[in-house]
Amino acid sequence: MTEARYLAGNILLAMPGMGDPRFAHAVIAMCVHDENGALGIGIGALHSGVSLHGLLTDVGIEIGVAPDVPIHVGGPVEPQRGFVLHSTDWEEPGSLPVSDQWSLSASLDILRAIAEGAGPAHWLVSLGYAGWGEGQLESEMRQHGWYAAQGRASILFDTPAESRWHATWRAEGIDPSHLVAATGRA
């Protein structure tokens, strides 16, 4: 077992110069991390022109009282698949409790509940996810790819998407302007 194991409930931040432009300034809420791999939901970028009202209409759910909020770019894997990160005050049989700060749901039931005003107190919707195979995330972390920050509900639910990368670094006590694109070797 390496130190990087079992990061569910943390927030991954892409390091400057990580090498994959799809993840520049990425902020990923880690939901699953075990011996088989990892799954996280991107929370640092929004889909242009895609909103909750459009998504609800597309899946045949009445808009009801749901606000018309933007949809997050959850990651490059299965970008047509929807996920809801939400506070732990709402659960359904298919919900995955990630930590004491948030849960993950992927059913239409949570979207219906949000539209009816009966859903969780805090939530965000994304399309797609970031996934890693067995040992892949650990390898990327050793190669200056990612930083694992403490998971904070305030970052997920109270901070605008475009501010989450900087806000998470600051919450860790790190000034992101001092980060460099490469690590040294002693």
TrEMBL record:
Gene Ontology annotations for the cellular component aspect, listed alphabetically: cytosol
A Pfam family: DUF179
InterPro entries the UniProt entry points to: AlgH-like
Signal peptide feature range: none
Family indicated by similarity: Belongs to the UPF0301 (AlgH) family.
Listed name of the protein: UPF0301 protein Y88_2322
Annotated source species: Novosphingobium nitrogenifigens DSM 19370
